[in-house]
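RECORD TYPE: protein structure
NAME: Protein kinase domain-containing protein
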Amino acid sequence: MAVLRLKIRKKAVDERHVVLKSGDSASTYKIRLHDEYNFLFDGGYPSSPVTNEFVLKTYSTEDAKKYYSNEVNAFKRLMHRNKVERNMITFYGSFRQGRTYNILLEYANKGTLVDFFEETRPPIKEADITKFWSNLLEIIKPLQRIHELKREDGPLIL
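PREDICTED:
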């Protein structure tokens, strides 16, 4: 798999970004690339961008390089073309800019699983119940792949 080496120019990103989450080691932002700068199309992935909205995860602490390297290496191993799972966020690339380490990911615009359960009525018909459970169980495949990741010196910490 070819990993994108990204350097995002300030004018390429719409200034109206949204902070999704800010933690001790990283912050995540919903960003929008201007049309003329979005070259992140790759037919090999199940979710090639049909939008210019992405998640930018930025590490900027003393341990940033370690966390960033762990996550990038995990995504590289998970995103092999022949093993990309349908229900896994797409990794588009990574870059270092100044003292920050950045990862560009697919933006899942449907919210979280908790949002889904809060906003969706439970299925009633047998066919809907079957479809619900079949779809829900599909997330087991990417979770299993994540848990199978190993480093030479122990488990991979993301």
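COMMENT: DSSP finds four helices and seven strands in the chain.
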